[in-house]
Amino acid sequence: MKRWLARQIGWVDLHGLPLVLQFILLGFALSVMSSQIWLPVLAVSALLNLWAWVFAMRWRRAIVDTPTSRVASAAQGYVELIGVGQPLADTPLLSPFTQLPCLWYRYTVERKEDDEWKQVDHGASELPFNLQDDSGRCEIDPVGAAILTTHKEIRTQGDERQTEYVLLKGDRLYALGDFFSFSGAQVVLNTRLDVGDLLAEWKSDQADLQRRFDLDSNGAIDEQEWLLARQAAEREVARRHQEIRRQPTQHRLRKPRARKPYLIANHPPEKLGRRYAWFSAMYLVLLLGCLFGIAWALHASG
Question: What span, in angstroms and rounded, lies between the C-alpha atoms of 55 and 178?
Answer without folding.
Answer: 19
